[in-house]
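Usage

Read records sequentially. Each one opens with the input sequence:
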Amino acid sequence: MFVTCLEFTGTGTEPAYSLPFSTQEQSHMSPFLTPPTDSRRKFLAIFGLTLIITAMVGFITTTSTLLDRKASYTEKIMVEEAVDGYESTTIGAKRLKLHRQMLDAVNKDLGATWFAAVAVLGIGVALSVRGFRGWKMEIEVREDRFAALQEAKLKAELRKFELEIVALEAVQRPSDLS
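and closes with the structure output:
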C-alpha cells in the first residue's frame, strides 16, 4: 500500500501541489530530541542518566522474560518428574534432560543479565557524577563569579550615585545661604 501526502498551494507562481515537508523546510526543522552539546559536561551527565535508565529498563524487561522462561521450564520438569515409569531411553527422559539444560541456560542468562545491568549502571553513574560535578565547576563557578562581578558593579554604581548626590547637595547649599 502506497500513500502520498500532497499539499495544494494554489498561488499560481508555484506548482499546484508540493509535498508537505520539502527539502527546504526540512533543513530548517530540528530533530525532535537534540543532544545538549553546548557543554561537554552536561552531555556526559545526561548521557549517564540515559545509561542508568536504559540499564534499569533493560534489566527489568530481560529479567522478567527470563524468569517467565525459568518458571515454565521448572513447571515442565516437575510435571515430567511426577510421571512415573520413564526410563533413560524414553522420550520423556530426553525431554526432562532438555528442560534441565534449558533451565541451566536460563540461569546463566540471568547471571549475565545481572552483570551487564550492573556494568551499564556503574558506567552511567560514573558518567553522571563526573558530568554533573564538572558541570557545576564549569558553569556554576563561572556564574557565581559573574554574579559577584555584577554585584560589585552595582555597588560601585550605587556608590557613584551617592557621591554625585552628595556633590549636588554641596553645590546647592551655598546657593541656599544667599
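Summary fields computed downstream for this record:
- Strands lie at 7-8, 17-18.
- DSSP finds three helices and two strands in the chain.
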